[in-house]
């Protein structure tokens, strides 16, 4: 049995009563999309015509000066983030996805190909569809020679995220969307060529990301070619040099699948959406997302958590008690730093992605015994209470990054600066899905109105 059996998935599916989701068959990804896009276009047309002037919320001055936090102002199809429940992908929670989405050959965790299919179509793929997508991605996974040469020319000291963003931008040399646009394609064709670029880009990300890893951390060592018999993450792990480590490969599958999308307003997803709205091709759009991800308030948190937990470990020594952790947490807060891995812009509960990664750790004796993972668990027992007592953060609970880097570290992937690159491989699933839908729905150029402080003050005075 290559993938989880369709029967067991169907049973889970029925139990979870996801009746609105249609169970998919052997139909190709393109045919599936062709079938569902007209209904979505119709839905949008109706919304616009019948409810275009319905008020959804109000804009306060604090929204304008506060990073537009919480403003409902963009359309995003693939996922919705509930502050308490966490992320849902087309209505499916993370535990739902873990029950119904196919796993990789010989594995148990969600395979990112099945998550990509779900994000793109809103349907749970069959084992055959997942396998076909895996095979297509592997067949398209090799980098063009000029991109290899470009990446090889970067200094080792250039940050891996800068290298990733530049490599992705350079891949637009082969953009199907750009070529078709130059030929004068019609609007209904936009999504077709966007999809081709998105699939090609997702296929090539592992080879690009692994080449950067090799060049920065193990220059001169051989790099495995893309293997047509492996799935996306199987290839990625193999090219990173961890192909024999099945636990790490499974962890990467789970992490990359779960981290693939987190609504549209986060900085990386929004950057891709904004740049894509200019009809820039998916490579340019996603490179913008990667540069947003490279910021310390966004994608760097997992490396910060690891750094902080290791400093705690070094200071507290062998006999680590909850009292000592509590004192260390207060020390961190009193020195004016944030507790990394805790808090969230939207979530107000423990992040279900954190819980899923914890469960993964619980199922692996080597992770349960790992001192750094034990420290993550002990910290989880103490930190919410301390953060509540501190009284500042709106969410005293862990986010996904509270544990993600520590698992990579345990398995030997110890190069902190590289962790955001793995996040970048993952986030492509959601950001590129939305580009396809933005083109299918004919969404316009994004152009919010900005205001100066003087204009705001005048508005306030006039409205009194
Ligand atoms: C994620 C994060 C940036 C969200 O920021 P936010 O939306 O502004 O969060 P809040 O509205 O809860 O912030 C309110 C206050 O609590 C503070 N706060 C938030 N999370 C905190 C944390 N983990 N430790 C200490 N203080 C925290 C904020 O700095 C802010 O303080 P201020 O009023 O002095 O500026 C923030 O929680 C954070 O910095 N967490 C640590 C880094 C991290 O884990 N990032 C990964 C996110 S997936």
From TrEMBL:
Gene Ontology BP term (one): tricarboxylic acid cycle
Entry keyword set: Mitochondrion, Transferase, Transit peptide
Domain of life: Eukaryota
Keyword hit for Transferase: yes
Entry keyword annotation includes Mitochondrion: yes
Active site annotation, chain numbering: 298, 344, 401
Predominant place of localization: mitochondrion
Gene Ontology molecular functions: acyltransferase activity, acyl groups converted into alkyl on transfer
SUPFAM superfamilies the UniProt entry points to: Citrate synthase (SSF48256)
Annotated Gene Ontology cellular component terms: mitochondrial matrix
Location within or outside the cell: Mitochondrion
Similarity comment text for this entry: Belongs to the citrate synthase family.
NCBIfam families for the chain: cit_synth_euk, PRK09569.1
Record protein name field: Citrate synthase
Source organism (scientific name): Hypholoma sublateritium (strain FD-334 SS-4)
Origin organism lineage: Eukaryota, Fungi, Dikarya, Basidiomycota, Agaricomycotina
């Amino acid at each position: 049995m290559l993938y989880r059996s369709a029967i067991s998935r169907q049973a889970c599916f029925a139990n979870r009563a996801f009746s609105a989701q249609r169970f998919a068959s052997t139909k190709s990804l393109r045919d599936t999309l062709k079938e569902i896009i007209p209904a979505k276009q119709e839905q949008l047309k109706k919304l616009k015509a019948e409810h275009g002037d319905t008020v959804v919320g109000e804009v306060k001055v604090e929204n304008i000066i506060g990073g537009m936090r919480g403003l409902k102002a963009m359309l995003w199809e693939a996922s919705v983030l509930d502050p308490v429940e966490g992320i849902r992908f087309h209505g499916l929670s993370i535990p739902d996805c873990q029950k119904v989405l196919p796993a990789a050959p010989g594995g148990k965790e969600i395979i990112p190909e099945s998550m990509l299919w779900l994000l793109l179509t809103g349907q749970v793929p069959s084992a055959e569809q997942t396998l076909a997508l895996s095979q297509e991605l592997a067949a398209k996974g090799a980098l063009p020679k000029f991109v290899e040469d470009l990446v090889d020319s970067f200094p080792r000291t250039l940050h891996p995220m800068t290298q990733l963003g530049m490599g992705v931008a350079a891949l637009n040399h082969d953009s199907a969307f750009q070529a078709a646009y130059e030929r004068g394609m019609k609007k209904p064709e936009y999504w077709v060529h966007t999809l081709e670029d998105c699939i090609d880009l997702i296929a090539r990300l592992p080879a690009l990301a692994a080449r950067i890893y090799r060049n920065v951390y193990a220059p001169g060592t051989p790099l495995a070619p893309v293997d047509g018999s492996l799935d996306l993450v199987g290839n990625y792990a193999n090219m990173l040099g961890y192909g024999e480590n099945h636990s790490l490969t499974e962890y990467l599958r789970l992490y990359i699948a779960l981290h693939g999308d987190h609504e549209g307003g986060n900085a990386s997803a929004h950057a891709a959406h904004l740049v894509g709205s200019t009809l820039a091709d998916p490579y340019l759009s996603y490179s913008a997302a990667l540069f947003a991800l490279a910021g310390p308030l966004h994608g760097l948190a997992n490396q910060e958590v690891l750094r902080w937990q290791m400093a705690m470990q070094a200071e507290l020594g062998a006999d680590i008690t909850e009292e000592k952790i509590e004192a260390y947490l207060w020390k961190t807060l009193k020195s004016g730093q944030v507790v990394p891995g805790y808090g969230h812009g939207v979530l107000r509960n423990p992040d279900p992605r954190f819980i899923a990664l914890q469960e993964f750790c619980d199922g692996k004796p080597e992770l349960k015994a790992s001192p750094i993972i034990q420290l993550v668990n002990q910290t989880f027992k103490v930190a919410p209470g301390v953060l509540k007592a501190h009284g500042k953060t709106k969410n005293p609970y862990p986010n996904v990054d509270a544990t993600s880097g520590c698992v990579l570290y345990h398995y030997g992937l110890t190069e902190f600066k590289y962790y955001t690159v793995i996040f970048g491989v993952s986030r492509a699933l959601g950001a590129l899905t939305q580009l396809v839908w933005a083109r299918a729905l004919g969404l316009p150029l994004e152009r919010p109105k900005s205001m100066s402080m003087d204009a705001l003050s005048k508005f306030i005075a006039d409205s009194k």
